[in-house]
Amino acid sequence: MTPYRIVIAISLCACALLAGAAQAQVATPADPLSDLSTRLESTHTIHVGFRQTKHLAALRQPLQSEGRIVFVRGEGVLWIVSKPYQASYALAGDAVTETGPDGRRRMREAHEAPALANIGRVFESIFSGKLDQLDTYFDVRVHGTPANWQLDLTPREAISPFLESIRASGGTFVERININESRGDLTEIEFSAPTLDAPLSDEDTHLLRQR
Amino acid sequence: MRLRTWIWLACAAIVVTWTGLRFTTQPPIETDLLALLPATERNSLAEEAAAQLGRLAGERAIFLIGLPTPEAARAAAADFAAAIDGPPFHRIVTIVPQPDSTALIALYEPHRTGLLPEPLSATPDLAADLSDLLEARLASPFGGGALPLADDPFGLFDAWLSTLPFLQSRLHIDDGWLSVRDASTSWVLISAELGASAFDPLVQITLTRVLEIAEDTVSSGWPEARILRAGAVFHAMNARANAEREIRLIGGGSLFAIVILLILVYRSPGPLALGLLSVGIGVSAGALATVSLFGSIHLMTLVFGASLIGEAIDYSIQYFSARLGAAADWDPGAGLKAITPALSIALATSVVGYSALALTAFPAMQQIAVFAISGLAAAWLTVVIVLPALLRKPQSAVPGRLLDLPGRLLQAWRRHGSLRVIMVSAILLVLAAAPGWWQLQTDDDIRQLITSDPSLAAQEQQLRTLTGFEPSSQFFLVTGEDEEELLQREEALTRALAAQRIDLQAVSRFVPSCHGQRESHARVKAISTSLHDTLLSVGFRESSADAWVSRQSMAPPCLTVTQWLASPVSTPFRHLWLDGADRHPASLALPTGYADVALLATAIEGLSGVTLVDKPGAVSSLFGEYRRLAGYAIAGATTLILLLLVGRYGVRGAVTILLPPVLAQAVTLGVLGYAGTVINLFNVLALLLVLGVGINYAIFMYESTAGSLLRESAALTGIMLSATTTLLSFGLLSLSSMPALAGFGSTLTLGIAVAVLLAPSALVMADR
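^ Those are the sequences you sent over. The predicted structure of the assembly is below.
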């Protein structure tokens, strides 16, 4: 579904940066991201912590959440929220499994939840280093050095009239993503402690492969 | 006499030249299966809608390119798409046309407070469900919806957009390509629209060439690539190729047999040349008459037409036999006079038989009737007008040995045949056949018309399994006094089908009725106070919650079909709305996925303004109706022919002549029953022709009596010759890949064979 392109776009660039392969669109000799992408190209799994703050104009207080993200090449993506509530989102293959704060598990086939499923696929393809889609949706600009780079994504038309810009920055790894929406809504995601090719825990394996 | 001959030859030359030119330059040959089908719907709107859907489907071809990795599949698909870009395709689509979000938002946003997604519009506790949705939205790491949180905190608009039936298949978009994966292969889908009808021969020829190039391109880069194809155009190409092969087989086989037999029997070039002339004029005239009357000629008619060669030669053969029998006494004028009654009655009975075909509502059968009647008439005219003028000399050498066998057969019949023997044999034959009649089974399925290529069918089955597209051949036609009533009826239909777990693609899924929109709006408005509290409790600012409630309280303007039609959002679904300025609005509603017709029919019981259009079902039941009617037609034709015969031969002679073909029908029906053949309209129509054509042999036999043994032997030789060519032609027709024609051909072959074997009984009875 098209309105979800915004969601896809956001997830897409987050992953792009995590996978560090955004140089596909900005292949200049002095590409500040090339180090990152080369390093992650052959990585099988990535574990990374995140802290997300959503500043929403309608809300009195920002919404904060923490957790971790696990990418497994060829399988899918796990987004696990641990604070302030426990929830997980497993995007794998043709299904999306959501485990809500109430512990209720909801599995949906791709065609029942096209938005989430698309994210899953996009995550996977991005993680495999294929970023051609980024250019379809965004105008991509990179500044800085490999130790301190900044990536600006300006959405092209027809993604969402409400998405204004996405900015990512980092050094040896992606450190932060800011997503600006109209009316002052802003989402900040900070990443920490990336671990490459660490073995997948039984619990994560279960979450990812549950059906 | 001379003048008449020249005039006819000149006419014939024009006909043959015209047909020759017409069929070599741009053959007006129709391959569209739908063109074979009669109009079945009482409602002309339904007929129009069915035609529109058929056209839509007919103009689309679908390809799936499969390779082990998605990257390779996409690269191969890109090459394939580039290779087929151009005529005959006018559009290559690699992504399902989905409107961009701006168009969706522009269309629906102003009306969003009246749009409630289906699952929520029926929920018992809307407030609780909405509060769950809000929590999930706030919790979701993926956050954003189509609208900012303040405008649509409960995500109702997103939920509405996601229930629009845009992409309901197993396909997903991978790197811009529609893709699907099975155990070992990644498939990429390419959809292509033809610039013209799938049944246009030029389109088919171009397509064959274009596809060859495209497949070569793909297989040279990816030798292990697999390409699946589906579309009406491939069936049409297949049908054309099959029919062309069959026309060559039947036409060529019949002509070859005629040439060999005529040379063997008459041993001179004259009869051969004149026989072929009468056949050529007959077939050309048949083609001319059919094309003039119908605008084009269907492949099925042509295949049948090829088998008419064997029957058209009969009149010439009678003339040659008379010449053979007269030996040195031959006088063309007297000879013609002697056989004219037989030829005329034979033509008349065939015309009666074929006319019954023209009375069915099937364009295909009508074409066959016109082709046969005009072709036989032209062949008959050629024999009557041209042959006596051009074949004046008597048969030079009468080959004694040639007439030995027929002579001996005749004597055997005379010796052993008596009225009693014949009557007893007839009764025994009927008794033997009768048990078979009760074992007859009928099946009027429309598929009898269709040649199904197993490879194509397998590819389509695999494509259906992979994509989840399950095209339904049934649909609903919904009508109403005005747009509002129509949409409400569609909604009632959607609910009735949902109870049977059948999903529906309909305009009201995109544009709910105004009544529905007002009701949805009222439902949310009624609980807005409690929703306001919910918003505050999750941390909304007072002002934001107030703003949402006040927007929600305003009655939205109703979204209309006109607005939807004007938006690019409706592009892929515009065929659902039937335009018509001068009538009440009408729309199509398509059940998605496989659904039992009976289930669909029961689901709409009690709904007004909804018609289930089941074209294959309607045609099949019409087949059945005509099968029964054809039974009466046989009785009618028999009576008519009996009257015709009584006029010339008296009651006794008429019965004598009618006995062989009627017995042949009885025996054929019995054999079909014993053989377990499932019979349909085409078998019954063939039985009708067993009467119309099979009677010829009895007539020729009867007419040849009261002459010398030489004359009678010559007549029997002619009859055996005629029968051989006719049987060969219809026998070859029974090899047709079109089940309908094959059944038609085999029933005719069997029936005529029996009619020929019994024909000499006419001779015996005439003696009495």
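Chain A is about 25% helix and 40% strand. Chain A touches chain B through 56 residues (CB under 8 Å).

Shout if you want it in another format.
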